[in-house]
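Figure 2 data, in text form.
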Amino acid sequence: MRPRLTRLNKLTKLNMQPKYDVIELLAKLVGHDTADPPGNEVEIARFIVRFLEENGVESELDEFLPGRANVLATIKGKRSDQALVFSSHLDTVPAGTQRWATPPLTPTIVDGWMYGRGTSDMKSALAAMMMMAIELKQEQAILPHDVILAFSAGESSNCLGSKRFMQTDALQQAGAVVVGEPSSLDVIVAHMGVVWVRVIVHGKMGHVSGSAGENAIDKMVDVIRQVKQLQIPYVDHALCNAPTINIGKIVGGTAVNVTADRCEIEVDVRVPPGTDLKVVADTFNTLASGSIEVEIFDEKPAVETSVESPIVKLGVEVCERINGRAAEISGVSYYSDATIYCRNNDLPFVIIGPGELGMSTQVDECVELDKVRRCVSIYKQMALSWHGVDQSQVLDRA
């Protein structure tokens, strides 16, 4: 567990390590503000490309929208087919309005943990993947298959970067994907699907001096109660939770002295693998009426990989050897870029990252530095040991 936050009065600024140290690199990455919105990953992408190329790893930057950029790099192996992809996103969630013990963009170390936004989710994995690639290149390692670094923009919102990678066929030769989302260096093989729903309530504009109108905010109060009582039909899953419903945003009214004629909420719904996302729309559409609209504005399918898949077996074996303990295989409620890369479950994936499960979006986000260092070794051994996958071992979506 991380140290108690009451000890943060003892924090000292990061003492930079020698050149190419993964902790120094992580500090530099955390210092770039990539909160989404707005993202603005282009500056960190330029830093990454420059850093990789200065250390012998050829890479390319793709600024596909103003300020939004991906980074792609390939380390050649004996074969180009069945490449092993290492996936990390460049963006973070915003720091929020709660007070942090230290400035969220100032990487700070206490008792072997680094604090700062993105340390856990997921710039620690990003740094580990970069250092893995540099070490493989400098050691002139003989790889059985190509290793691809795919660093994406906009994962935290709508997976802009991973969609761009798929549009450009950059990962056409992929045989499996290692995603660096937080896993506490355990092995995650499934994550839930996500549906984002917008519910709009219409009223009638009015004023206390004349016709009072119909207050859409008042009507929305009743709708919110109904939303909280909705039951999403689902298929039980051994590794993932039952569906969840979270109202994350509400907007209503135009002025304090005017009766609100419109109010809307945005709702995050998560369902386990095997549950058809259509049931979410069907369930929410029961709320629709003459003055209530329901819109689905994003979907991210659940994905999973069989525990018998070679990439999972390799991940477990390497994690156990380097961590010196049994590896836990689990599923998670968060989503990742695997929802885009592996959405038809025709490409196996595994999530292994040094960040702590449950740390994402938290105030005083942090990562244990020993896990970051171990993660470099885990990624490196997986790259050296990857021999391809048996597609018949991958679970089909129900």
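Caption note: The chain has a mean pLDDT of 91.
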